[in-house]
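INTERNAL AUDIT FORM
Audit reference: QA-55
Scope: verify that the stored structure record matches its stored sequence.
Auditor: D.O.
Record contents follow.
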Amino acid sequence: MTAVKEMHITGVSRGKEFSPNLENNDDAIFHAVEDNLRLLGYKVSVCCEKDFVKQTCESQVIYNMARDTSTLKRLKELEQEGCFVVNSAFGIENCIRKRMTELLLEHQIPHPVSLIIPTDLKAIPEDWKYPCWVKRGDSHAMLKQDVSYAETEQDVLNILGDFKSRNIPSAVLNEHLAGDLVKFYGVQGTGFFYWYYSSPSGHSKFGLEAINGEARGLPFEESSLKHYADEASLALGVPVYGGDCVITSPGQMKIIDFNDWPSFSCCRADAGLNIAKYIHQSIEARY
């Protein structure tokens, strides 16, 4: 592959506050894409989120791992002016927990039973089942407390109280699913897809995967997992993606989380190559 023309690409790295316990891994995949784009013949300049919003951007193409609201606002403005952005800021916002839950359910992607609630709720609906997960609804997880396991209604109310004290207006309750926890990564349109059991890999942001314990190796079709992951990618608008899925019984699965641009820690070389490939192919088709 060679670049279709001399074109300048800007890369925007993720703010450190949005990479809890994964700063080095996020930096590594960001620069792996940079290196592969340069090998394809593109001129690439990179900057952090805070610098990006302060400067003029003249690039027609931007790849980014941004999360800050001011960065996303600027990226959306540039997209509306015709700039090609990977991942789209609109898609990144779709991966915020509340919106992600709504879109996955709307598009009938296999997903846990879920409930979106305000954090000032005084009682949980009587038919809600425990244990469950309580997740902040207004953002990606930035602290370990943003995703918590609850065994009782009082546990849920305590977590909601913490969210409210931190000015988090909404939460998402997910049923807890017993089964094998699988992590997956993909790049839309390239054929690249990688999955592995979360235990005993050691690749974890907060260590919450331990709740599900050791994987038993329940059988499932990788093609089905890839199909649902690609469907979620399209529904949310994030061609560079990762997520978590629980295999609940032989052949049965539910996607419990979906992320824009994860760190691809265990498949970084292939991911960096294929993300650059996706950007290159999109440029060829677009320009």
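Auditor finding: record pair retrieved intact. The first strand starts at residue 8 and ends at 12.
Action required: none
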